[in-house]
Sequence to fold (104 residues):
Amino acid sequence: MLTNPGNKTEAPEVQFISLPPETSPSTPRPIPIHPHIYSNGIICLDLLGSAWSPVQTVESVCMSIQSMLAGNTKNERPPGDADFVARNRQRPRDIRFFYDDSTV
Fold:
């Protein structure tokens, strides 16, 4: 019998990794410039946090991120990006984001 104390299900965590130069592409890919992507690579997207549900698949999450990137019309970082990146030392799953802009 499988048990889950407290019936707690956590959202998956996405982390970008760096590959050694001999295995990485010759031209590194930059972190996309988007109003919901911080310059350290942390993505502020509700379905990666509070809106995540166990019914979502890797494919549906990737499609949501792709849709978010493709629909972007603003070539800018989130407000307070430099301060957030300089001060934040938490794992993405431990950050409490406030999702107030669904237009980009």
